Amino acid sequence: MILHSDLLPTGRVDAAPWWMNAVLYQVYPRSFQDSDGDGVGDLTGIVRRLDYLAQLGVDIVWISPIYRSPQADNGYDISDYRDIDPLFGDLETFDALVARAHDLGMRIVMDLVVNHTSVEHPWFIESATGPDSARRDWYYWRDPRPGAVPGTPGAEPSNWESFFGGPAWEYDPASGQYYLHLFAREQPDLNWENPEVRDAVYDMMNWWLDRGVDGFRVDAIDVISKRPGLPDGGPARAPFGVGHECFADGPRLHEFLQEMHERTFAHHPGSFTVGEASNASPESALLFCDPDRREFNMLIQFEHVNLGQENGKFSPRPLADGELADVLSAWQETLGERGWNALYLENHDQPRAVSRFGDPHGAWYESATALATAYFLQRGTPFIYQGQEIGMLGGHFTRPSDFRDVESLNYLSAHPGEGVPAGLAAISRDNGRTPMQWDSSPAAGFTSGTPWIDLPPSASSIHVERQLADASSVLAFYRALIDARHRVPALTSGSFRRVDAGDPGLFVYVRSCEGSEVLVMTNLSGRAITPRGAVLDEELHPSGWRLYLGNVGASPIDPSEADAGDPLPSSTMAPWEARVYLR
After folding, report:
1. Are the beta carbons of 539 and 553 closer than 8 angstroms?
2. pTM for the model
3. Which residues are catalytic?
4. Which residues contact 126 (CB under 8 A, 6 or more apart)?
């Protein structure tokens, strides 16, 4: 690792709005830090690690759901929006967490799930008492398909499929009707057409914001508006199932989101808001995050993480050189200076980036740091998922009993006798949910008990304790990227311009604003490549740039460059090499 920190400006950029040069860190509470030995992470554990996050340079901590829940989908099935699940702690501990984070200069963002609730939520329990319930219309209840036998395959009101596999309708024998669940059957969809539902949601959001929460990441928000009549869908469009076009980006979606903003965020200036939209394109994203529309600050989209899944989520293909960079560039160029990107490669729903996009066996360090460089310095707010900053790898799933995630278990149930398909083992959401690896102890410092899900074999060598003692570790590299994000003006407000370096394996771009310019060069391939074309033009002449950060030394590919000091922009890039230059 090459680091010339003396090249950075001395002070932090004064950004407006504040989140333009902030760095977000996502915590998956179940797997972050256990404080009581039950094998499940908790709020007290998060509090104990806040100093680590502050030292890393984190500004925002996004906490995945900690509300009271039966945990059918690890907390994304909420039974009480105004309480903390005892598995994680209580409201008093949560308040202490928020206060401590604020003392350390960090903001707390909660995960908000309002497309659906748990079947154990009082709203649904009342709704399910019968067709005459006062809250029956708070959810989607429909009669069986005419002429079909209720409760049998094909009798569902429409042919929609759940994100987790199988029909999106569950039959209720007591009333003879079905209820809609786009996710697990334990997660019935709220009917956002009902104004009483929206009022209840907004009141709850304001309750948390008034309590001191700094904002929300809003889950699956692009499916809250369904097509009127809930009609049958057309053929499936992988990786989504049948009916997706009938409930994604529905006709009243943006009306609802603008109402949400007006009723909640507008009353809490400075709130941080990010929506999750599985169906978003670069063009449609501006409907969500153009500031003039008053919806969200930014959007979590799926296009780059869905690459190679045309044959289904669990039948991925290898990506060609340049595929990832092309999608990331399209989002940068289309959103431009009107919208704002949520920059990410990992989260609780995705496999680890090094395993998915890099080379975990032959070039673990190089690909972890090259991928970090490629996404982290683009225009937008960078998100780090817990453990990404140390290059954590996915789990080791060889038996059905190794899995915990409802989506993976549903897939195995629908494909009995097939063992564990390689695609499922590689892409399962459980890959991102193994415990945080803090040290070399048997449970990686996560718990004194038995972890709720097994640690991967790599935990013995990839952990925070080791990397804190290594000035060239993946962790040290991330800290250098975070430092640059905070202190270099071009990385806050600068434009993004892709540079053609003559080979699809090279992802090269320039961030620039008045008085500040950054050249980012990454080789996202396992081949040595010599830049050519525009990168050698006078505009990017080597004499104009000084290397701030690199993940390898001078390229050993060309012997004539071996003793030339820091590599120049024109020099050959080793496999998975990354460089960051300042003008």
Report:
1. no
2. 0.96
3. 219, 276
4. 133, 134, 135
Residue 514 CB coordination number (10 Å): 9
DSSP-assigned beta bridge partners for residue 79: none
Cβ–Cβ < 8 Å for 25, 386: yes
One-letter amino acid at 72 equals: A
- 8 A C-beta contact, residue 450 and residue 435: no
Strand partners, 218: 112, 275
- Give me the amino acid identity at 17: P
Give the Cα separation of 249 and 277 in Å (integer): 9
Residue whose tokens read 């004499």: 543
Give the number of other CB atoms < 10 A from CB of residue 553: 14
What single string gives the DSSP state of each residue in 249-271? S-TTHHHHHHHHHHHTGGGSTT-
Residues 499-523: tens digit of each pLDDT: 999 999 999 999 999 999 999 999 9
Rounded-to-integer distance, Cα 430 and Cα 395, Å:
7
Q: What is the CA angle 432-388-325, rounded to 5?
A: 95
Mutual angle of helices 282-289 and 253-263, in 10-degree steps:
30
pLDDT per residue as tens digits for the range 399-419: 999 999 999 999 999 998 878
